[in-house]
Amino acid sequence: xxxxxxxxxxxxxxxxxxxxxxxxxxVRVELTMALARELGVLDKVEVAPCAPATDDELAMVHDPxxxxxxxxxxxxxxxxxxxxxxxxxxxAFAGVHEASALIAGASLAAARAVWEGTAGHAxxxxxxxxxxxxxxxxxxxVYNDPALAIAWLLRQGAGRVAYVDVDVHHGDGVxxxxxxxPRVLTISLHESPRTLFPGTGFPGETGxxxxxxxxxxxxxxxxxxxxxAFDSVVPPLLREFRPDILVTQHGxxxxxLDPLAHLMLxxxxxxxxxxxxxxxxxxxxxxxxxxxxxxxxxxxQVVPRIWTHLIAEVAGHPIDPATPTSEAWxxxxxxxxxxxxxxxxxxxxxxxxxxxxxxxxxxxxxxxxIMATRNAVFPLHGLDPMP
Length: 387
Description:
387 residues, 37% helix
């Protein structure tokens, strides 16, 4: 990269906290940054602060009335179910607006750095809150920071923005906010909506001229099937779309240990996907890449390791999977969670897959999912859906 990579960070980002029993525990982000620091990953990047998104910035994708409702909840801590705050997924808490606006501001800072050329790549691991809708919180998400980054880029003059979401859950909020905008290509690879929240993301949801792309994968697909699906859909579409900038969401709840989902990937498979996205950013978007975190509810074994791999990939200095975690970090894990920490940065897998050039098996549920997506959207991009 001609420009350095940037990590957007403020210790206050861990104030996005729905309470001690909520799956989205901020300790996962705290442990990620601690591990990245211990392994020297943060020495390879610029760590830059951020400011909260302003009301005008939030209004690029959110209704002003919703923003005001979030601010009222923030001031009192009292629920407002009409705004989606006070549910089990999105409990109300005092300070929710300030915490959510800071995460949004971090993704805006990442977008600004890459668009203005002060950074080649930028990452906000606290971000990726892709379920928030224009006028309601949803799925642990209050303000939709990836969508705000995309909307800001469009206002700056970006002609085409591609968004790739590898969270196990469908990126429904981002899709909804740009569903009819042909300037934005949204691609989401997720567990089938037949078995997982939010119940959307079928291949037939194609948006404006095929710019909404959904790969709905069967439970248990694992590294091999997931990577085959990614390779069969994402690279051809990005090469055809040729975005000015690539935005990616890296929810790591596709891992086998995640308590909320069932795709059964490994850290090694997820790391392989991150490296692939990095290559595609350079091949299709001039190297302009903005990455965010997302879901991920195995707080010790998965999130800190895979997002440390993400930061290292963004930095252009990938970590050897055999690298041991540090003793200082292991002590921190035990102090903060009481759990046994992982000893290395790998699950011991070497992910491999066969691409679609050898044909597809109509009896295989992964290949059926791939072909459902290709048949739905490839012709709309002038691409042949057949291998």
